[in-house]
Design brief:
578 residues; alpha/beta; binds zinc ion; six-stranded mixed sheet; 29% helix
Length: 578
């Protein structure tokens, strides 16, 4: 699946002569690390004791003696003291700019209950000038103790003189003033996708599903400048390094974001590699979406290098399962949790399939990766229909078209995705944070195909782990948590917060598969499998040293793993060494 350019690297010492050097005077490796337990994640999951690094690449892996023999006067040697070494970890779904600036205007505390949400809103109401918008973002109702939206009346009481928007994913609860400012009243008619929830008298309850386009919130008082964004991104990337992350996919870029990354790259300020999926509009004239695809297709960063490249586009098929708008094949069912009163409601499909198809044809022609946010099984099925139609005209396997989230992956969808060579980035943290609520909403039959990771591995779908990190720089407070070891632990145990037992334990991954999820598989998703994702001669020297043996420690210790050192391209970017 991941052809290595150096398949013999496995158990033997392997030495690569970098083409530019030719034979003869080969410089000494800059670094040799020995006496470790280096998990190479190569196709045979070889474990070696030592590794040599030169010119930012791994030049040899193998036993202590054979690798140490390569040392010269210019080589620094590091005794790993038996510690475990892993390839640098890769997160295939992040939103760095959003996350890095999410607390620029004000800090947002963790909120686990409705009273905490209302207290925060009341505090904001005292802090901002009268009439300013108060916005609470990404406090998911599935993660609140009460498992419900705050009501319009509760928001009114907390901030009587300000418009309030409680926003999660593509859905939001507005208070009375906010509805008035958006001109959403009993006569309001939705054009296109989305739902205004109404009470028995036809009055909007405040809950809007997939209607963000009607809610224009003025920017906060303190808006980050370009320099602020740049500085905070640097901070965030160092925080990622601290968690063992050396490469990420930004799954929703625009040209402003791309330009900033480009400057960071040129100034040597990147400490994580970045693979980009550009957002293509799903509303407005079709022509402008097609032009956006063409413009991306001719961007020089498509080729990029091993630090920064554009891999394709991103679109949203449906809403979310944390807010009640993912597009399901069976009705959601009436729900106090999600405030659903219509027994036939199936969620929101953002764009007609024909429009997705027209755009997808263009994306294929440009040779780009099409990545779709698709949460519900009907959203996934709709996009697989689109992908199959395009595939009949032009095979898409080599384009590695993808699904982001893919939470409700029915067995027939697993089979269809596998046939197309579709790749998936999945967020284990959603299993952890949300199942205690999901099992209340959905029957066991529907939950039986929630995150069927073992089935996806068996079907040879290349599946990668991602966080969907979008808020806060600090790992312990981040939403969604970008701790990859927590992600691994979830896929191994299938356990959840406030949830007894394990969800579909037969779908649990082995420890090796969990490591593969954040290394080799993600490298493939990001078109970087020749550069990163494994520790093999010829690959970039991205690796981490961790404080425990992930293959043999007690299973519950996996999530508490600490990273001691992080190296990117042969340079230590985190940790002090010995
Ligand atoms: Zn996302």
């Amino acid at each position: 699946m991941n052809p290595s350019p150096f398949p013999l690297a496995a158990r033997l010492l392997s030495l690569v002569l970098l083409p530019t050097l030719g034979f003869g005077a080969l410089p000494d490796p800059e670094a040799i690390l020995f006496n470790g337990k280096a998990v190479t994640v190569d196709p045979s999951f070889t474990i070696v004791r030592a590794m040599a690094v030169r010119g930012g690449r791994i030049v040899a892996v193998g036993g202590d003696d054979e690798v140490r023999r390569l040392a010269g006067p210019g080589t620094r040697s590091f005794d790993l003291g038996g510690r475990m070494v892993l390839p640098g970890l890769i997160d295939s779904h992040t939103h760095p700019t959003m996350a890095a600036t999410s607390e620029f205007d004000h800090e947002t505390p963790a909120m686990e209950t409705i009273p905490e949400v209302l207290a925060f809103i009341a505090r904001r109401a005292r802090a901002v000038p009268r009439g300013d918008w108060i916005v609470v973002e990404q406090v998911f109702i599935t993660r609140l103790r009460e498992q419900r939206f705050p009501t319009r009346a509760e928001l009114d009481a907390a901030a009587p003189a300000d418009p309030v928007c409680f926003s999660t994913g593509s859905d939001m609860m507005l208070n009375t003033l906010a509805l008035r400012e958006c001109r959403i009243d009993r006569d309001f008619a939705v054009a296109g996708a989305g739902v205004v929830e109404r009470d028995a008298n036809g009055e909007p309850t405040g809950l809007l599903r997939g209607l963000g386009r009607y809610v224009h919130i003025p920017p906060a008082r303190r808006v980050p400048s370009d320099a602020d964004k740049y500085r905070r991104l640097k901070e965030l990337f160092h925080a990622y390094n601290q968690a063992g992350i050396t490469a990420v996919a930004d799954r929703k870029t625009d040209f402003d974001i791309v330009d900033r990354y480009k400057r960071m790259d040129e100034h040597g300020d990147l400490t994580v590699r970045l693979s980009l999926s550009q957002l293509i509009p799903d509303i407005g004239p079709l022509e402008s979406s097609l032009e956006a695809v063409d413009e991306l297709g001719s961007n020089p960063l498509r080729k990029g290098d091993a630090w920064l490249h554009i891999v394709g586009i991103k679109m949203f098929a449906d809403g979310g399962m944390m807010s009640g708008s993912s597009y399901m094949s069976e009705p959601w069912g009436k729900s106090d949790i999600y405030a659903i009163t219509d027994g036939r409601y199936r969620g929101v499909l953002n764009t007609p399939p024909e429009r997705f198809f027209r755009i997808a044809q263009h994306v294929a022609k440009q040779g780009l990766q099409f990545d779709t946010h698709a949460v519900g099984d009907a959203a996934i099925a709709t996009m697989l229909d689109v992908y199959e139609r395009v595939d009949r005209e032009q095979p898409i396997r080599n384009l590695r078209w993808g699904l982001s989230h893919a939470d409700f992956m029915r067995p027939d969808l697993v089979a269809r995705a596998a046939r197309l060579g579709v790749v998936v980035d999945i967020q284990p943290i959603r299993l952890y944070d949300d199942i205690h609520t999901l099992v209340r909403q959905f029957d066991p039959a529907r939950m039986s195909y929630f995150h069927p990771l073992q089935s996806m591995f068996a079907a040879r779908i290349v599946t990668g782990g991602g966080s969907d990190h979008m808020q806060k720089i600090d790992e312990a407070r981040s939403i969604n948590s970008y701790n990859p070891f927590l992600g691994m632990w979830i896929t191994i145990t299938r356990g959840g917060k406030w949830y007894e037992g394990r969800l579909n334990p037969e779908q649990a991954l082995t420890r090796r598969q969990a490591i593969q999820l954040y290394t080799r598989n993600n490298a493939y998703l990001l078109f970087w499998e020749k550069e990163i994702g494994t520790l093999e001669a010829g690959k970039r020297a991205d690796f981490i040293v961790v404080d425990r043996d992930l293959l043999s420690c007690p299973v519950n210790d996996i999530k508490d793993t600490r990273v001691l050192e992080t190296w990117v391209e042969g340079k230590r970017v985190y940790g002090s060494g010995r």
